[in-house]
Amino acid sequence: xxxxxxxxxxxxxxxPYTEDFPKPLLRVAGRELLYRHLRLLKEAGVSEFIxxxxxxxxxxxxxxxxxxxxxxxxxxLNAEPERGNGYSxxxxxxxxxxxxxxxxxxxxxxxxxxxxxxSCQGLVVDPEGLFIDPEEATKALCEGGRIKALSKGLKRYxxxxxxxxxxxxxxxxxxxxxxxxxxxxxxxxxxxxxQIPCSLLAGFFWMDVDTPEDLRRATYLLVKRSVKGxxxxxxxxxxxxxxxxxxxxxxxxxxxxxxxxxxxxLLGLLAALLVFASPAWAAVLYQVSSMLDGIDGxxxxxxxxxxxxxxxxxxxxxxxxxxxxxxxxxxxxPPQGTLEFSVYLLAVFGSVMVSYTSERYRGAFGRALHxxxxxxxxxxxxxxxxxxxxxxxxxxxxVKGLYFLLAALTNLRVLLTLILxxxxxxx
Length: 427
Fold this sequence. Notes:
This protein is an alpha/beta fold. It has 2 domains: 2-221, Spore Coat Polysaccharide Biosynthesis Protein SpsA, Chain A (Alpha-Beta Complex); 229-425, Four Helix Bundle (Hemerythrin (Met), subunit A) (Up-down Bundle), CATH 1.20.120. The chain has helices spanning 33-43, 58-67, 85-91, 111-117, 171-181, 187-194, 212-225, 234-251, 257-274, 279-291, 295-302, 308-332, 337-365, 369-372, 383-395, 399-425, and strands at residues 2-7, 27-28, 31-32, 48-53, 73-77, 100-104, 107-109, 122-126, 139-143, 146-151, 159-167, 198-200, 206-208. Strands 1, 4, 5, 6, 8, 9, 10, 11 and 12 form a 9-stranded mixed β-sheet that branches. Helix 3 (85-91) packs across helix 6 (187-194). The longest helix has 29 residues, at 337-365.
């Protein structure tokens, strides 16, 4: 399948960012708008891209494409962008060979939207528009499964124009007729005249980016939508994620996911060293590192940089941090006698095994443990809860009591995990 991406606009409402720079190459959540289209569409099955651009921006587009040879693209120059986005669309007609996707270069979509939208027909219409300003959005009126009207000023409408189309070359017949009739042609006019099909798709994030505020809002929403909280404990849901997403929004254009992993790991190791000087401040810093532990994953998902290596590195370094902190506590507050020493070892063992059982489940079955066995979400002992509990107990001076509590919580959770997984997969 091919895709046509309209990217010839001047983006006047985004100046000074677009003074001599194309809007589709502006970054949102760490990635260019155009890269997002190319990456998500390729993952959805598109194998060839036709990008209609303004000649004044040709150098920028060619430099971008030279950095991304994985996307087979053809550039079509529109020397008259003032003739409207309908005219830009018309210029792509000779490059299109069969059914194709059409998107706008200044729109941003979450991956789940694109995955669903490519299987639709005609214009993808969102009846809810959860993430857009209804007053600014183009409305679509559908009757009998086809577009009857597209305009911002519609009083009666079915939903909102998402700027995502799945079309056949026959639509260029209407485009050619309008180009011959008028100097300026909008895409809305072409689609209304062609009465293309419309498909309803609601609940996903998408928006067009017209202003600097839109750039900031799109970044914020992409980061928020990147949170995969299936394995989050109570502390993450109510505290850690609120902090980490706030930080991720501000760092997504500055740090790579692996750099974020290293940063939080260094904070955790610093907390372990600080135990020997000030256990209370060390416990607080340990909790801070836990609150920031989610930024690497949030940045990775929001900026389309997820990788098996990144997930593996984060998991391994988290275990190193946890072991180092418990080791430092054990050296600073050494257990007395066989019972205390045994309990301390059980606390360390259980803390490692909680994470190990979860990661081994993913390795063995290819799915997240908490997604497949939701009951485990309600059983305490996950890492965010253990770190928060550690901070509280250390601040209260109950370090020996912490050993007993961690030993009980973690090993009970491991035992219940074994039982639940046995029931689900052992037969």
